[in-house]
Amino acid sequence: MTAHHDSDEPYPSLSDYHDYEPNLEFDDTELQHTAVDGDLAEKLVEAGGLDYLESPVSDGTIEENFEEELVNAPTLASGMDSLSYPFLDEDDPEDEEDFSDVSRYGIVDVVGDDTVGRKIIVVSACKLPSNKELDHTRLLRYLMYTLDKYVEQDYSLVYFHHGLTSKNKPPLSWLWQAYRAFDRKYKKNLKALYLVHPTNFIRVVWHLFRAVISAKFGRKVMYVNYLQELSQHLDLDQLCIPQAVIEHDERVALQKNRSSVSSSSGMTPSPASSPVQSRLITQQFGVSLQFIKDNHGGVVIPPIMRQCIEFLSQPDALETEGLFRRSANVTLVRDFQAKVNQGENIDFHGDVHIAAVLLKTFLRELEEPLMTFDLYDEITQFQTLARDDRPKQVKILILEKLPEDNYQILKYLVQFLSKVMDRCDLNKMTSSNLAVVFGPNLVWAQTGQLSLSNIGPINMFTDFVLTHHDSIFII
């Protein structure tokens, strides 16, 4: 089968397909007519050594040396150049900086993985409070603190622009400093940046920064004017879209096509209103473990899970650097899922990352997580347990409270992941890295939402299970 999309290249920008430009929600004439700290645009051009180009992804922009250009660019805010979030001791999470004053606004959400296993991080401008209430320096540290947990693996970023006003809009100097603070380690594994409901403010900012943004990074940026377009790439139900954004999307869709009210919502049909699709008895993705067991000869370990793990247990696969961190081609993944659900045989053709993504996708799409909804509250309280109490409590949770079939599947998975950890010197997948990858695919709330405050405990719990698997599971 021939893949038509390179997984390392995002979808092309959607901005060229739309002529509708939503009205600005605030006066951005300062961007177009006022010099910023001694004419920001002129300084950026001088820093990049280039004139503005007609296309933000033109081959004439700075390519691989743009980081060096940024180092030489002007500093727009004093006291910020040294801004960085220190790497913390994973064994002492209580020493982490308390960002509860920022996180309570819900500006940033991590909503799990997309269809090819990439973490999705959502930033909502409508949740930004007034500039009088928010310390932007702390906001930047909070963003870096959040991203630090995921930048070592592929991830996608969704930015909902609606709701940015003159009262909560960060200054341009802060935007420039944020770009400088997010160095190569943040940009390298960012596979797609979706700018939803862009206005002239976004385009002018892009124009200002264009001289020092590489074409490679530019190709990752996609303008999305309607939520319906975003649904072609991501599951909207998974994104927890703010109601204000949904209502704004309905309005701009109505303005675009007043003659068709039914199509103006810009949202994909909700599960409640969509026709229920009949299940094939061969289906394995998107069903329960019991359904798979009942329709596959009573086997406890789901066949697709066993096939992925047996393939990935080969020495060459185990030693692949970035195993479980890299995404795979979207078309191939969906094709494999369809074949599995139809009961067809599949062949990975030596593609380690396809097998790895399918394994994560299978766990993520179960009707109920492997660790069950009933155990969610206890797992998310793991961080509060005294260190001496953790071994006993985890054993009680796994050996006594987890259903027998779930226990056997978890044991099978963890025994495989221990092989991955044994070769971490080659594949770079330590217990903590695997916990970041698998934690949200093993544990989630019944609401389907994953709050940032619970990601840490879930990952800590998963790391503990992986590290102490020999003493937890009964041989």
Automatic annotation (TrEMBL):
All copies of the Rho-GAP domain together span 287-473
List the record's Gene Ontology CC terms alphabetically: cytoplasm
Gene3D superfamilies named in the record = CRAL-TRIO lipid binding domain, Rho GTPase activation protein
Q: Where is this region: Disordered?
A: 1-23, 257-276
Molecular function via GO = GTPase activator activity
Cite the InterPro entries for this sequence: CRAL-TRIO_dom, CRAL-TRIO_dom_sf, Rho_GTPase_activation_prot, RhoGAP_dom
Q: Any one Gene Ontology biological process term?
A: small GTPase-mediated signal transduction
Domain annotation CRAL-TRIO: ranges: 98-253
Q: Which CDD domains match?
A: SEC14
Q: Where is the composition biased (Low complexity)?
A: 259-275
What is the protein name for this chain? Rho GTPase-activating protein 1
Organism name: Megalurothrips usitatus (bean blossom thrips)
